[in-house]
UniProtKB/TrEMBL annotation, chain A:
Alphabetical GO biological process terms: DNA repair; DNA replication
Species in which this protein is naturally found: Capsicum baccatum
Gene Ontology MF terms in the entry: ATP binding; ATP hydrolysis activity; DNA binding; DNA clamp loader activity
Family assignment from sequence similarity: Belongs to the activator 1 large subunit family.
Record keywords: ATP-binding, DNA replication, Nucleotide-binding, Nucleus
Start-end of Low complexity biased regions: 579-593
Domain named AAA+ ATPase: residues: 86-224
GO cellular component, one term: nucleus
Protein name as catalogued: Replication factor C subunit 1
UniProtKB/TrEMBL annotation, chain B:
Entry's localization field: Nucleus
Keyword Nucleus: yes
Protein name, entry field: Replication factor C subunit 3
Residues of the signal peptide: none
Record key words, sorted: DNA replication, Nucleus
Keyword Nucleus recorded: yes
AAA+ ATPase domain boundaries: 33-189
């Protein structure tokens, strides 16, 4: 920690430099030709130097932090966190290399805060003992020391002391090695007496979900290409290299907003002393649609196999689907000369074959974890069809089946299963009228069921028809939903549906009759007994015991996860309680008592209440 | 009640078709015990009817008192726990389930659930240890792994548990499992037998069926008894009294498949293939099993095809059917077959007619 502080002190000395133009010249003068990385050398030294993002929000937050928390707390109302804009921490998020860390540091310096930086190189795992013990605890980590140490915080009358801010960098890396780190961090935020700035790349990631509730989110955007080019030009001038504006703009475009990478590239190129600016672009995110376009392009035969793999791997789930969707739409350039389409059809057949191959490979990958096959899958699902059929696009029709079709199919299968169960259990538990497979139900029974259910509606007079149908439905436990499902499942595009030609008033009468009618015989899927099957506990005598066991287990599982957080919680709570009035008294009592004698369930409940 | 269910024979001595099989089964269980059984035969030939009648023969009417249960099983598979949801149909003496419903997790069903069931030995009235019958449907859909794990289970728990397996084709049941069972082949009933059954039903219902009408239904039914009975009733709903030239309604999906077939025969172009894909999707979302679609499509195509191509096309159909079972996304394989057919047929047309 001391090391950081020393480093920061040094940096802090030159906070007051303001104009960006000056900066370059100064740098150049002070250290000509040294080998520091340019990214370090030209790191902005003042807020103005940060391009692309406004710093006002974070400045505002940091400025008002003291008022919001310390002063409020000293008055005795410790929790005003619900107040919008009054979170104790901020979360800066954005892609790498756009200056999040730099901004955090600069803003802190600007507002005369002393910064303490903790990043992935520090151990930030869950501490073993209570937070409050700080450095005295067995493996207490340094964060807690920082946030609770009265010496560091600014509120205890030593106004001449510098205020401190804690910057926690690379928060998203915390989940990996630092078990329980995020939960611990939340606890830290709650008791913190100094502002905390968290930095991450993707604030929507799963691990950070809980943390986000305690942080004010601030998004960092990519700086504009022109801005970047301008800045790069300044750097280039300062370093004394001649680069054209266009080349720099091109560079800015290729790195896709990553300023750090742009600077690195620039430095590298200057070392190589060549005018040729850069060898390869950053691995950018190609949209799957664009990938398809490129793969099937008229000139696609010039693509190298690596490029093709890169294209199809840009989204290994979606690209194959899009290929399958679209491969019929192209007129292959290799078959451009024959008119009969014979060549094209045979190419299509080969492509379809290869797509089918990829399905087999995917099964191997998914089911047997043969991940080494994924390049093969990619080649057979995308590259072979594309290389066979690339050419001029001829749009047939834009229909997007993709996976939507699959989900409808899944839904229909579930509905069919429901219907199946109803038919199986028709007549209650006493007897059994039919036993048939699900498939046969669809294949053989449906025509008759449909006829039985709808034909009378068309032919017979209204009342008689309705009675007829309802009777039949009841005898087979077919519910209204099942009826709708039958109609739905026997609907083919372009063919008349079962309900065509049924007068609306008859339909209405049917629904009405059904709603009133005898429901006694009908078994709904919700009535079916759904038991949590227990594998090992077959000896357990009563069902109630089983379910209770399962519940307990679940709860204890959940508790294991949140145990630490919970403990932390109570501690903080007790403190808050001591400080504030007696409003929390009853809650506290219950928590305390349950905490000791293994009443974990209620403990967890108390946690949820918070 | 539908006629199929109403006139389903309830006991082994009342069956009309497969009387010989029924008699053998009766002899087999007269001692109150039986070996593991594997019933195989095309759909609609009476496997399930025989199995149920057999259970009734062994356990008496209590085999009829069934309940449907929808259970979530927690299976411990090494590092993680898997939830398998299965619907079972059980009486005190038997449990019926569709292990293939668990998808590619069917292995765990076989490994764990069946084992659990087999371990619980029921005790019969005399205090003797009885056995339980496990009816497994659609064994041919079980994955290879599941069948492998099945064979040990069959031996180990043979004292407390009999397995009755039911499948459409014995070729998809592994050799090992087949050899552990008494194989009972239930062939599709002859058309005359179907006519007999239909006439029996007509007599019971008091219907006048014109000469040759039942025969026409039997012919249409493709030797599928269930379908014949259902079609018969459909005709009854549609029009009664029967007339001799009454149209026999085709199954809705069959009609759709034959439309696809004629689409394919008429034009072989990417555009047509695209339309066919849409129609195939339509069939799949309507829960028509892809194997059935492919088979039916092949038959429809063969009807219209020149004889010299028949062999090749059937070969490809078999090829894609096999791969469809290995794969997951049926539509890819169906489409590949259609594309293959189009390419074969088109080149044939061009070489023949120029």
């Amino acid at each position: 920690m001391l090391k950081y502080m020393r480093g920061l002190k040094a940096a802090g000395d030159e906070t007051e430099s303001s104009a960006t133009k000056m900066l370059a010249a100064k740098q150049l003068a002070s250290s000509p030709g040294t080998s520091i990385a340019w990214t370090q050398k030209y790191r902005p030294k003042a807020i103005i130097g940060i391009i692309g993002n406004e710093m006002e929000q974070i400045q505002h937050w940091l400025k008002n932090w003291d008022e919001h928390f310390l002063k409020a707390a000293s008055k005795g109302k410790g929790k005003i966190q619900n107040d919008s804009g009054a979170k104790k921490a901020v979360m800066l998020s954005g892609m790498p290399g756009i200056g999040k860390t730099t901004s955090a540091k600069l803003v802190s310096q600007w507002l005369a805060f002393q910064t303490i930086e903790v990043n992935a190189s520090d151990i930030r795992g869950k501490a073993d003992s209570k937070i409050k013990e700080g450095i005295g605890g067995s493996t207490a980590n340094s964060i807690k020391e920082c946030v609770t140490n009265e010496f560091l915080s600014a509120n205890i009358g030593r106004s001449h002391r510098q205020k401190t801010v804690l910057i926690i960098d690379e928060v998203d890396g915390m989940s990996a090695g630092d078990g329980g780190g995020v939960a611990d961090l939340i606890a830290v935020i709650k008791i913190s007496k100094i502002p905390i700035i968290c930095i991450c790349n993707d604030r929507y990631s799963q691990e950070l979900k809980s943390l986000m509730n305690y942080c004010l989110p601030i998004d960092f955007r990519k700086p504009a290409k022109q801005q970047m080019a301008k800045r790069l030009k300044q750097v280039a001038n300062a370093e004394g290299i001649q680069v054209s504006e266009i080349a720099l703009e091109e560079l800015a475009d290729r790195v896709d907003g990553d300023m750090r990478m742009a600077l690195n590239q620039l430095q590298y190129t200057s070392l190589a002393k060549s005018q040729h600016l850069l060898s390869r672009s950053k691995d950018e995110d190609i949209s799957p649609f664009k990938a398809i376009e490129k793969l099937f392009d008229f000139n696609a035969k010039n693509l190298k196999i690596d490029q093709r793999i890169d294209l199809s791997m840009s989204d290994p789930d979606l690209v194959p689907l899009l290929v399958q969707e679209n491969y019929l739409n192209y007129k292959p350039s290799s078959a451009s000369k024959d008119d009969s389409d014979l060549k094209r059809i045979s190419l299509i057949a080969r492509a379809a074959d290869s797509i089918a191959d990829s399905d087999l490979i995917n099964v191997q990958i998914g089911r047997y974890q043969q991940r080494q096959l994924s390049p093969a899958g990619c080649i057979s699902s995308c590259i072979i069809p594309a290389s066979l059929l690339h050419g001029q696009r001829k749009i047939l029709e834009q229909v997007c089946w993709l996976d939507r079709q699959n989900s409808t199919m899944g839904k229909n299968y579930r509905n069919l299963e429901d219907l199946h169960i109803h038919l199986l259990s028709s007549g209650g538990l006493a007897s059994r009228k039919s036993h048939l497979g699900r498939e046969n139900l669809r294949l053989d029974y449906f025509t008759l069921l449909g006829k039985k259910l709808t034909d009378p509606l068309r032919v017979l007079p209204k009342d008689e028809a309705v009675k007829n149908v309802v009777d039949f439905k009841d005898s087979y436990s077919i519910s209204q939903e099942d009826f709708d499902n039958i109609v739905e499942l026997s609907k083919f595009k372009g063919c008349p549906t079962l309900l065509d030609g049924v007068r609306p008033d008859v339909k209405a009468a049917l629904t009405k009759a059904y709603n009133q009618g005898s429901k006694s015989n009908v078994i709904r899927s919700t009535d079916l007994i759904t038991l949590p099957g227990i594998k090992k506990d077959f000896k357990n005598s009563s069902d109630t015991e089983d379910t209770a066991d399962v519940e307990k287990k679940l709860q204890s599982d959940r508790l294991c996860l949140s145990w630490k957080g919970f403990q932390v919680n109570t501690d903080w709570w007790l403190e808050a309680f001591a400080g504030s009035g007696s409003s929390n008294g009853s809650d506290k009592g219950s928590t305390e008592s349950s905490g000791e004698r293994g009443g974990r369930g209620s403990g967890a409940a108390a946690k949820r209440k918070r | 009640m539908l006629w199929v269910d109403k006139y389903r024979p309830k006991t082994l001595d009342k069956v009309i078709v497969h009387q010989d099989v029924a008699q053998n089964l009766q002899k087999l269980v007269s001692e109150g015990d039986c070996p593991h059984l594997l019933f195989y035969g095309p759909s609609g030939s009476g496997k399930k009817t025989l199995i149920m009648a057999l259970l009734r023969q062994i356990f008496g009417p209590s085999a009829d008192k069934v309940k449907v249960e929808n259970k979530v099983w927690k299976v411990d598979a090494g590092t993680r726990t898997i939830d398998v949801e299965l619907t079972t149909l059980s009486s005190t003496h038997h449990v019926e389930l569709n292990p293939s419903d668990a998808g590619f997790q069917d292995r765990y069903v076989v490994q764990e659930i069946i084992k659990e069931m087999a371990k619980n030995r029921p005790i019969d009235a005399k205090g003797k240890k009885g056995f339980k019958v496990l009816v497994l449907n659609e064994v041919d859909k079980l994955s290879r792994e599941a069948q492998h794990s099945l064979r040990r289970t069959m031996e180990k728990y043979s004292a407390s548990c009999r397995l009755v397996l039911c499948s459409n084709s014995s070729s998809k049941v592994t050799e090992a499992v087949r050899s552990r069972c008494l194989n009972v082949r239930i062939n599709a009933p002859m058309e005359e037998e179907i006519v007999n059954v239909l006439e029996f039903i007509a007599k019971k219902e008091g219907l006048q069926s014109p000469q040759g009408f039942a025969a026409r239904i039997a012919e249409k039914s493709n030797r599928n008894l269930r379908r014949a009975v259902l079609t018969f009733e459909t005709c009854r709903v549609q029009q009664y009294p029967f007339t001799n030239n009454q149209a026999i309604p085709p199954m809705d999906w069959e009609q759709y498949v034959s439309e696809i077939a004629s689409d394919i025969m008429k034009e072989q172009s990417p555009k047509r293939l695209f339309e066919v894909r849409g129609k195939l999707y339509e069939l799949l979302t309507n829960c028509i099993p892809p194997e059935v679609i492919l088979k039916r499509l092949l038959f429809e195509l063969l009807k219209k095809l020149d004889s010299e191509l028949k062999h090749e096309v059937s070969n490809w159909a078999a090829h894609y059917e096999h791969r469809m079972r290995l794969g997951q996304k049926a539509i890819f394989h169906l489409e590949a077959f259609v594309a293959k057919f189009m390419s074969i047929y088109k080149s044939f047309l061009i070489s023949t007619f120029g």
